């Protein structure tokens, strides 16, 4: 009888320990990884990712977290290196429930196989590289537009609205710039046009004199530019100083508060595509902008807003799916979400169909020139 009682006592102790472990595990935080560029030439973009993500995590936790369980953020600097992004993915993915990756498409593309292997939903809040959502992966989502769509909207504006036909292309020689140049070329071809000149620049380039000289000889009516602010701010200054006073712009990467500071007066009248333009009459958006300015001392750009919304989308999915990453992915794919930046749903590839704006820099402020519903643009691409 004593042996039987001792056995039952042991069983009770073991079951109690199992229950305690399960309860403890259920209270462990939900974790989102942030695998972005926080140093070097693209650091301002990466800091926007970080600020938007951290602010969303703070707001969610203050509002009761994920059904009472806190949300935690793991931050890593991938130094704009795909190999570094993969190392971070391999290190963090076993311990996160979703991950936000930036600032380049090459970093996201490099991490996709790791996400598929370890079943981690990944988000590209500022990624325009077309291939990111054309790999057939069910684990990647984009809260931005892709460059093919952005290029069509930009070229259509130049040709159909401004009545310009002689368009030159200037792009950086990394994947972002190369993909943008290809997309501009394709958008022009749809209108039976060809670029009058094509020029490339390298990371860190500060002397654009030869490029500007060749462009002047080509006599373009407009210049489509695809690259990051560190170089594009220098290019537009040197181009305008040389007398190239034609419409310039294009890439959404112009949406950084750093660009007008670096470009100075040359930054005026730069036009670009942007999925974000705050409605002055929307109290929710204006409240967010005011809170962000108080916290960080500047207005939020598209990368801040897209990251903030991405975290909320992930959190909504977590509320329904718990910590099961397959279910989190499925809930994200099915979501219909109204965030800071308009209503958002995802298509079968993980892309969204929010409108795109044509925006112009003017004395350090942005002015909206046009809004395009991209649903018809996407349909035309799929034909």
Give structural notes.
This protein has 383 residues and is of the alpha/beta class. The protein has two domains: 26-145 and 280-352, Rossmann fold; 148-274 and 357-382, Response regulator (Rossmann fold). The chain is built from 13 helices and 14 strands. It has helices at 2-26, 43-62, 82-92, 105-118, 147-161, 175-190, 209-218, 229-241, 258-263, 283-296, 302-321, 325-334, 375-382, and strands at residues 30-36, 71-77, 98-101, 122-124, 140-142, 167-172, 197-201, 222-226, 248-250, 270-274, 336-338, 343-345, 356-362, 365-372. Strands 7-6-8-9-10-13-14 form a seven-stranded mixed β-sheet, with helices on both faces. The protein has a five-stranded parallel β-sheet with strand order 2-1-3-4-5, with helices on both faces. Helix 9 (258-263) links the parallel strand 9 and strand 10 (270-274). Helix 2 crosses helix 11, helix 3 runs parallel beside helix 4 and helix 5 (147-161) crosses helix 6. The protein starts with a helix and ends with a helix. Residues 16-25 have low confidence and may be disordered.
In short:
With 383 residues, this protein is of the alpha/beta class.
Topology:
Elements: H1 2-26, E1 30-36, H2 43-62, E2 71-77, H3 82-92, E3 98-101, H4 105-118, E4 122-124, E5 140-142, H5 147-161, E6 167-172, H6 175-190, E7 197-201, H7 209-218, E8 222-226, H8 229-241, E9 248-250, H9 258-263, E10 270-274, H10 283-296, H11 302-321, H12 325-334, E11 336-338, E12 343-345, E13 356-362, E14 365-372, H13 375-382
Parallel strand pairs: 1-2, 1-3, 3-4, 4-5, 6-7, 6-8, 8-9, 9-10
Antiparallel strand pairs: 10-13, 11-12, 13-14
């Amino acid at each position: 009888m004593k042996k039987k009682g001792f056995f039952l006592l042991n069983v009770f102790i073991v079951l109690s320990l199992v229950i305690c472990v399960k309860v403890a595990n259920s209270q462990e935080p939900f974790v989102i990884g942030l695998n972005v560029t926080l140093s070097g030439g693209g650091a301002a973009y990466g800091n926007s990712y970080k600020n938007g993500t951290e602010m969303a995590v703070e707001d969610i936790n203050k509002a009761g977290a994920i059904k009472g369980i806190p949300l935690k953020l793991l931050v890593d600097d991938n130094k704009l290196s795909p190999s570094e992004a993969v190392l971070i993915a391999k290190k963090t993915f076993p311990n996160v429930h979703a991950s936000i990756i930036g600032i380049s498409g090459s970093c996201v593309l490099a991490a996709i196989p790791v996400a598929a292997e370890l079943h981690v939903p990944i988000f590209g809040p500022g990624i325009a590289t077309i291939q990111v959502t054309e790999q057939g992966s069910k684990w990647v989502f984009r809260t931005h537009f892709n460059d093919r769509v952005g290029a069509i909207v930009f070229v259509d504006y130049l040709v159909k609205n401004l009545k310009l036909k002689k368009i030159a292309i200037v792009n950086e020689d990394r994947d972002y710039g190369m993909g943008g140049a290809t997309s501009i070329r394709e958008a022009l071809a749809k209108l039976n046009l060809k670029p009058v000149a094509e020029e490339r620049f390298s990371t860190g380039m500060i002397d654009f004199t030869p490029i500007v000289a060749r462009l002047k000889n080509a006599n373009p009516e407009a210049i489509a530019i695809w690259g990051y602010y560190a170089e594009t701010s220098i290019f537009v200054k040197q181009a305008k100083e040389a007398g190239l006073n034609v419409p310039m712009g294009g890439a959404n990467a112009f949406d950084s508060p750093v660009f007008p500071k670096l470009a100075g007066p040359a930054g005026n009248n730069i036009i670009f595509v942007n999925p974000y333009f705050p409605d002055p009459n929307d109290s929710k958006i204006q409240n967010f902008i005011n809170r962000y300015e108080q916290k960080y001392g500047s207005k939020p750009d598209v990368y801040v807003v897209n990251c903030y919304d991405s975290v909320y989308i992930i959190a909504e999915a977590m509320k329904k799916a718990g910590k099961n990453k397959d279910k989190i992915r499925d809930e994200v794919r099915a979501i219909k979400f109204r965030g800071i930046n308009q209503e958002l749903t995802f298509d079968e590839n993980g892309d969204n169909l929010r409108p795109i704006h044509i925006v112009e820099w003017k004395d350090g402020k942005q002015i909206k020139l046009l809004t395009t519903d991209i649903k018809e643009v996407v349909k035309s691409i799929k034909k």
